[in-house]
Specification:
Helix content: 40-55%
Largest sheet: 8 strands, parallel
Distance between the termini: 41 Å
Low-confidence stretches: none
Strand content: 15-25%
Order of helices and strands: EEEHEHEHHEHEHEHEHHEHH
Mean pLDDT: 97
Number of strands: 10
CATH class: Alpha Beta
Shape: globular
Bound molecules: NADPH dihydro-nicotinamide-adenine-dinucleotide phosphate
CATH superfamily: NADP-dependent oxidoreductase domain
Strand order of the largest sheet: 3-4-5-6-7-8-9-10
CATH topology: TIM Barrel
Number of domains: 1
Oligomer: single chain
Structural class: alpha/beta
Length: 275
């Protein structure tokens, strides 16, 4: 079954399921992304900080797929953000990817102590208006950071990419996104291996009921909440597993049981202190 497209607030759309390449070794990334494209993925999430943009671009260019059927996201590195070198960073990403444009360019972290994220956002708006990137967004922004960039520019980010999984559900942030027309993207959708996928009865029971794996149930939970996801999988079996989530549906009671697992405790990096 086809991956749904989610409409962004700038009239572009994004495949709801993609493939993430955080911690995929640069030396193997081209092969891994080629395998992901062969498995049906059409959306790749990378970042300058992952040191594998060149390999992602090589895989995209090596594929027979028309460029407009692929969606590539990359992100401003914290070092470039700190230096205020927004345009240089964008140009280096485009050169590394060796593509004509980037589909979605994100400010990777707000780094509030650096006090440059509003300036970065102003420059990102220029990138979009110049046609260098189709869409612009942010990552790891909290409500006060979103308020600040919207108040300064009037431009609402297309997405905010944040840590989000059954154990940390970002309810207040998601409500803000919904009220402002921002698409929620989940990083660490499977919890980054920080908790055992089958350790919660709500997940294990739904997996047994549908004849699916715990990972497929968790990803399906994201999909039914309207979240954009791009699980990372280096194992080919995981890559295929994560793509096969469009042939079943969780019932409202199953969704509610997973909703109830929220601890409201982030497990990954803190947007206030990662500066
Ligand atoms: P994920 O939650 O996607 O977890 C990846 C882990 O889950 C890997 O160990 C993988 O194993 C395992 N896994 C994948 N599929 C399955 C499966 N079907 N069954 C069991 N285990 C599975 O974590 P990520 O941190 O990679 O998050 C996804 C993406 O989000 C990243 O790749 C990156 O693109 C983005 N990200 C963005 C951040 C940001 O600050 N904006 C921060 C972190 C991530 P294996 O590899 O062995 O297959």
């Amino acid at each position: 079954m086809a991956v749904p497209q989610i409409q962004l607030n700038d009239n572009h759309s994004i495949p709801q399921l993609g493939f993430g390449v955080f911690k995929v070794d640069p030396g193997v990334t081209q092969g891994v992304v080629e395998a992901a494209l062969a498995a049906g993925y059409r959306h790749i999430d990378t970042a300058t900080g992952y040191s594998n943009e060149a390999a992602v671009g090589a895989a995209v260019r090596a594929s027979d797929l028309p460029r407009d059927q692929l969606f590539v996201t990359t992100k401003l590195a914290n070092a470039d953000h700190r230096a205020g070198d927004f345009r240089g960073a964008y140009e280096r990403s485009l050169a590394a990817l060796d593509l004509d444009y980037i589909d979605l360019y994100l400010i990777h972290w707000p780094m509030p102590a650096v006090e440059k994220y509003v300036a970065a956002w102003q420059e990102f708006i220029h990138f979009r208006d110049e046609g260098l990137t189709k869409s612009i967004g942010v990552s790891n922004f909290q409500i006060e950071h979103l308020d600040a960039i919207i108040a300064a520019t009037g431009v609402v980010p297309a997405v905010n990419q944040v840590e989000l999984h059954p154990v940390f559900q970002e309810r207040d942030l998601r409500a803000y996104h919904d009220a402002h027309g921002i698409v929620t993207e989940a990083w660490g959708p499977l919890g980054q291996g920080r908790w055992a996928l089958d350790s919660y009865p709500a997940i294990a029971a739904a997996a047994a009921a549908h004849g699916k794996s715990p990972a497929q149930v968790i990803l399906r939970w994201h999909i039914q909440h309207g979240t954009v996801i791009f699980p990372k999988a280096s194992a080919p079996a995981h890559m295929a597993d994560n793509f096969a989530i469009f042939d079943f549906e969780l019932a409202p009671a199953e969704l509610a049981a997973i909703d109830a697992l929220d601890t409201n405790q982030r497990l990954g990096g803190n947007p206030y202190t990662n500066n």
